[in-house]
Design goal:
alpha+beta, 3-stranded antiparallel sheet, two-stranded antiparallel sheet, about 20% helix, about 25% strand, elongated, binds zinc ion
């Protein structure tokens, strides 16, 4: 199951590393600190991954309106 979805064009899976793992590395294995930082991203020990897809920001609407695939450069509208 992919948290960040797949590219509608090439099928690339956008899930990256676990956010928790990244902070475990940064804090050299300090689980308490890692969990605290991960929680700011809504992540837990086993859930919450970095996403690979690129957000295209609309300055006028002040929100992300489209996504771009870093692999095939396909662009599509944000639906949610
Ligand atoms: Zn793609």
């Amino acid at each position: 199951m992919s948290e960040h979805g797949y590219c509608p064009n090439c099928g690339n899976n956008f899930d990256g590393d676990l956010i928790f793992d990244t902070f475990m590395e940064r804090y050299e294995g300090d689980e308490e600190k890692a969990l605290e930082s991960a929680s700011y991203y809504g992540a837990t020990k086993t859930k919450g991954r970095w996403g690979h897809k690129i957000a295209l920001y609309d300055m006028e609407k002040d929100m992300t309106t489209r996504w771009k695939c870093p692999d095939c450069e396909y662009v599509w509208d944000r639906t949610t």
